[in-house]
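Lab notebook, bench 4. Still working through the backlog of constructs that have no structural model yet. Next entry is a single chain of 153 residues. Request: give me the structure tokens for it.
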Amino acid sequence: MIQVLKWLFGLMQKHHVHLCSQVRGSVTLKGKPIAGIEIKRSLSYADEEQIDITKTDEQGSFAFEEKSIRSRLPGNILHQPVVRQIVYLKYEGEHYVLWYANQRGIEPIPGYTARLLQLNAELTTEEQVYEIENHDSLLHPYGVTSICRWPQE
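Model written out:
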């Protein structure tokens, strides 16, 4: 009976769900900054999407604030929390993916947080898939797709 009450209380309680860490980056083309480009960030959790839009400044730099929500879903033992994160832009008719990842869980992923602060995109760079260490499961690393490059750790 106590377990049932705990389960019911868990369903009613709202939990903090981390959608995305702070994002900072820049956009260049052949090494030259591109000003005035619209950058979009799409964050999806439990069939709800939130889209943020910003523009690059004269140095090609842009930023998004950290984002989180409150939700009852993590209290449901059948719910498997996944946040889809996409940061992208369209330039001269082409789409460029600066960041595409699925965050499993409701807490920030350190490997994501560090890279999202260095989202520096050169538009001539090919898209690549990265494996980021998953400290909870070494057999299942996190995957990130991006045209950005990061220094080796």
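Notes after review: The mean pLDDT is 86. The domain at 2-146 is CATH 2.60.40.1120 (Immunoglobulin-like). Flag for follow-up if needed.
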